[in-house]
Amino acid sequence: MHQPASDRETSTSDVLLQMSNVTKSFSGSVVLDDVSFHVEAGTIHALLGENGAGKTTLMRIAFGLHTADRGDIEAGTPLRRVRSPIDAIASGLGMVHQHFTNVPAMTVVENVAIGGKGPFDEAGVAAVIGEIGERTGLHLDPRARAGSLSVAGQQRLEIVKSLAQGARALILDEPTAVLAPTEAAELLAWLRRFADSGEGNAAVLITHRLDEALRVADRITVLRRGKRVLSAPAASLDRARLSEAMLGESPPTSATPMDGPRESSDAIVAELTAVTVRDERGVESLRDVSLTVQRGEILGVAAVDGNGQRELLRVLSGRTRPSGGRISIPDEVGFVPEDRQRDALILEESLTINAALNGAGARRGLVRWGQHRERARRVIDDYDVRGGTPETPARALSGGNQQKFALGRELEASPRMIVVENPTRGLDIRASAAVHVRLRLAAEHGTAVVVYSQDLDEVLALATRVVVVHRGRTRSVPMDRSIIGRAMLGVE
Question: pTM surpassing 0.70?
Answer without folding.
Answer: no
